[in-house]
Fold these 2 entries.
Entry 1:
Amino acid sequence: MAEYSSEPSKIALSYAIDVITESATLDDKNITLLLNICGDLTVPALSIIDSGGIKKVSSSCGRSFFEVIGSSTNTYTCLIDEVYCNCLSFQNNVILNRKNFLCKHILAVYVSNAIGKTTEVIESYEFVIEHLKSLCNI
């Protein structure tokens, strides 16, 4: 089986997010751009944004993560710099099978940030570190 190369898709998505950030809107042109790059992940990601299910949790030291409420009402943790989500789709389709380069939760975070729809909260350094440690089972 040939290995999936995600690099062109990552570059295209980076371009699309830059375009969306510059326009600060999700017009038909930008949605079509996302659909062409991310396919079936686009509509569910936009639904997450529409439901207001994205929160950036930061500490005063600058560490942060995103909490995303998925379509099943489960809350997932996304790390954007590392491109990680603790959902099953990310585990199966990104890490194990390399079918995709991201999941709908990460796409929702990227787009939500680009159009200014992400809620931001400040938590203690200890809270953020403990949450991040819990992702690693430390």
Note: The CA atoms of residues 13 and 38 lie 8 Å apart.
Entry 2:
Amino acid sequence: MVYAEAKRIMIAYENKQGSIQSLIAQSKSQHKNSLTCLIMKTMSYKKLLNKIIKKSKMLENEKFLGDKLAQLLVYDVLFGMGVRGKFKSAVKRNYQSLTDACEYYMKKYQVDNRDNLLKIFDEKQSFANNSSNKPKYVYINQLKLKKKEILNKLIDGSYQKVDYDKKDENYMKSSQKYKDLINSLKENEFIKDNHVKNLIIFKHDAKINKNYNLFIEGHLLQIDKSSCLVPLALNPEIDSHVIDGASAPGNKTILLSNILKNTGLIHAFDIDDVRVKTMQNNLKQHNVTNVRLKCMDFLQTEIHKYDRVSHIMLDVPCSGSGMTNRFKFGDIDLENIKDDKRLWKLEALQRRMLLHAMSFLNVTRIVYSTCSIHQEENENVVRYALKNCDDRFKLVNIFADKWNYGRGICLDEKDKNDFHLDYCIRTCFESNFTNGFFIACFELSQDIDQNSFSTMDKEQTIEDEINET
């Protein structure tokens, strides 16, 4: 039965047993297309469905259904293909009250049909709705062709560049005027980003996608703007030796290679062999030739083997709570529920990785980043590292003149005046039209004894903490 299986998958998703896509793929149902459509639609309009269910008093009459099953049935009977099977009689008993409740909300939102009710109500789902309108950010990879040649190919392919005054303060910041400019783009138009060089922006529903020949040929790379800021903050000089501590699938590594112009050497590590193989293909597609990729835990690296490394990019494993595609079903409350035990373990791992990065004797600059909104994985980790690095590193005020919104959170005067946590940056959809990201940049302090810092005991302490959980 489709409804029972859909209910099971929705509950499993809430219990974080997998993504909707993976749970459907594992299902033994012979009607996966119908199952997918029903679940996606029901979860997308859950808030409206709950209002109709409450107004109709359906669950008071049919307590055996439960909220998930009721949502599925109400969607199908009012907005879908109609209810079939053994639950048809329960729906039939409540059909009049359900249609009355639906008409009530149609009048309330001043729409003349049910489809428009879905559209209007979807707009009420604020972040969930808006995040699906996140622009398409596309990076111009110059490891094969020059930027001008790629843009000419793009324009020859019927795309048009829209010019605007980048010096205008309203466009320099991610203001409403800038968002309006992006939303005004036609499906074949793009603009240059106001912060990241070589990044162009298409409207969320632009027809361009990864099947376009310039993507297939490796000239373009679809990547969120927030991810671009990480290698940009590191900004290594030509010929530098760099470590990418958690590199797969390699998009940030490709940008890093662009900054280095394929010179120097990037030591890229990832612990998952499947992701490493994917990354190998990704690097080859984009003509990256200065990367030495290893399937290896960054924490197992021996620092004396990397004495030429001066920069480390550390985009650590995290909860992923800032990723806007996680909100596509409108489950904002669900996705922001903190799993404290998991966050604590992640924070412990992140601390270890950052302290390990600080132990490389010739490293002068480290960028730490997460795609998380939680302070446990962000400011807490940075604060801990600064307390335990023997003053060897200090925070850099990244993008100081260009990023006047979305800064690190300071809980007290010490955070602001001693640790300078407001030197870190945060991104989010509401302010920046991007995923939620946190970025901190550390720089080696002057007049520091290079041999004065050891993380061995500190890393062991954190490892003991992890093993106790």
Note: Residues 123-129, 327-336, 459-469 have pLDDT under 50 and may be disordered.
